[in-house]
Amino acid sequence: MTQVQVQETANLPAHPEEPVMRNWREYFSFSTDHKVIGIQYLVTSFVFYLLGGVLATVIRSELGTPETDVVSPELYSGLFTLHGTIMIFLWIIPAGTGGFGNFLVPLLIGARDMAFPRLNAVAFWLVPPGGLLIIASFFFGPPQAGWTSYPPLSLVMGQVGEAMWIFGLLLLGTSSILAGLNFLVTILKMRTPGMGLSDMPLFCWAMLATSGLTLLATPVLAGGLILLTFDLLAGTTFFNPTGAGDPVVYQHMFWYYSHPAVYIMILPVQGMMSEIVPVHARKPIFGYLAVAYSSIAIACLSLIVWAHHMFTTGTPRWVRMFFMITTMVIAVPTGIKVFSWLGTIWGGKIHFRTAMLFAMGLISVFVIGGISGVMTAAVPFDIHVHDSYFIVAHLHYVLFGGSVFGLYAGIYHWFPKMTGRMLDENLGKIHFVLTYIGFNLAFFPMHQLVIQGMRRRIAVYDPKFADLNLICSIGAVLLAISTLPFLINVCHSWLYGEKAPDNPWRGLTLEWMTTSPPPPENFKTQPVLALHPYHYGVGLSEANLLSDQEYPRSVLSTEPEDRQNRDQESSSK
């Protein structure tokens, strides 16, 4: 194959027909199309995100003054519990894993759908009833033990509401397990011919690690919640200290899942970052294999760090030392990803589109959360700041800064492919500026609140904390306002926006080689890997030098006779 032929192959879409515009009713149906399911996940989770944001605004309004002038302390605890649960289990996890994972994975690997389409639909349709149960729990004696639901507190406050909260989480956990199994089989068994593991887009590596974590960790949380339900409703004493139960065992079961859950939330977003940054910097990803293997390393290490959440529970010194070391070590593969993104940006021809702005914003705020995470890995420091606002700041810099910024970047990047319409860049940049300023204004002053001695999970506090809390509350309101230009942008663009070309960003991964939006079967024929997915700015002659046996590694025909002729020609040379 000559270089001219290679160039022509790179420019030809795999499905040149006109895009198929879907009927809006299809998104409310039991569809087995992975693209429809992905958008169902994204829209549903964003609705829950808006609800969680409203709760957060109420919470911060209460904290704007030292007195209880908005809600009572009891209602505050219920709002606090519901906010944390919604943001983690109904927004970040289903949006990143279910939403972008479902839409992108089959397209990125050249498959026509997920391995188990009906199971995929069932996994999604478990989410709305699970979310509704959690929300309904607020009206039947709201759970007030926080999103961790530690016993014995969770056993004595809001029994009916607590039980509904647990049942809702069990439905969401079942959904995650089914989705994780589906992703593993799809990625490992349904890649287009010629795509080896070392040719996969990095988002697929991230989803591979995420799915493995989900299958290993989620059943442990489910088991702990089932035992907690028995204590709550049947009078057993697995975790109830009044009956010789051990509440610390529940903490072990909870955090064995819930610390890996941090990476279940973050890994898909990190995979999205590794797709977005090279496209908008027009440079090959820096350290492809290191980034790919770092996802697997994070997944493995995250299973042996859970007890750093329990340094104040009386754990033995040797246990503290072990988990302190493993927690610090897990920062290494995470740092590899950050340095890869920075290395990719360095010297690139950066296009400051909204997707890239959110991606660069993520790097800046996630690094702050990562540094504070390494600080809390040290046992003496963790004991000092435990249950303080330092933990609140760290949690939000990692989860909101490290996940929500990336989810926004992903929406701006793949919205044209999902809908066939372009988002308005001016509204997008307004959205970014308001989000970035509001986020840092809301959470950065919390580090100073720690120095002054403010504890978390309280509605009433000493007046000396009032000024900084007021600043945090103003930032929270600004963060809430920032969603308005985004909602206007999405709704208007989806209906009336400029029609998107098949490949508006000149990407090299396979999802850009089909129409916008893609047809039900994704590709008319088996897609061809025209170039390596990250060979941005690499000339074809240079690509030949970088590849095996003179041929560019990703210039592969899916026709068996073409592949055989190519192999024979390479052998003769």
From TrEMBL:
GO cellular component: plasma membrane
Pathway, per record: Energy metabolism; oxidative phosphorylation
Domain Cytochrome oxidase subunit I profile: 24-530
Stretches that traverse the bilayer: 39-59, 79-109, 121-143, 163-190, 202-234, 254-273, 285-309, 321-343, 355-379, 391-415, 427-448, 468-488
Main location: membrane
GO molecular function, a single term: cytochrome-c oxidase activity
Membrane topology note: Multi-pass membrane protein
Catalytic activity: 4 Fe(II)-[cytochrome c] + O2 + 8 H(+)(in) = 4 Fe(III)-[cytochrome c] + 2 H2O + 4 H(+)(out)
Region (Disordered): 551-573
Biological-process GO terms, alphabetical: aerobic respiration; electron transport coupled proton transport; respiratory electron transport chain
Pfam families: COX1
Subcellular localization, as worded in the UniProt entry: Cell membrane; Membrane
Record key words, sorted: Cell membrane, Copper, Electron transport, Heme, Iron, Membrane, Metal-binding, Respiratory chain, Translocase, Transmembrane, Transmembrane helix, Transport
Basic and acidic residues biased stretches: 560-573
Enzyme nomenclature, EC number: 7.1.1.9
PROSITE patterns the UniProt entry points to: COX1, COX1_CUB
PANTHER family hit by this protein: CYTOCHROME C OXIDASE SUBUNIT 1 (PTHR10422:SF18)
Functional summary from the UniProt entry: Cytochrome c oxidase is the component of the respiratory chain that catalyzes the reduction of oxygen to water. Subunits 1-3 form the functional core of the enzyme complex. CO I is the catalytic subunit of the enzyme. Electrons originating in cytochrome c are transferred via the copper A center of subunit 2 and heme A of subunit 1 to the bimetallic center formed by heme A3 and copper B.
Similarity comment: Belongs to the heme-copper respiratory oxidase family.
Protein name: Cytochrome c oxidase subunit 1
Species for this entry: Umezakia ovalisporum FSS-62
Organism lineage: Bacteria, Bacillati, Cyanobacteriota, Cyanophyceae, Nostocales
Gene that encodes the chain: ctaD
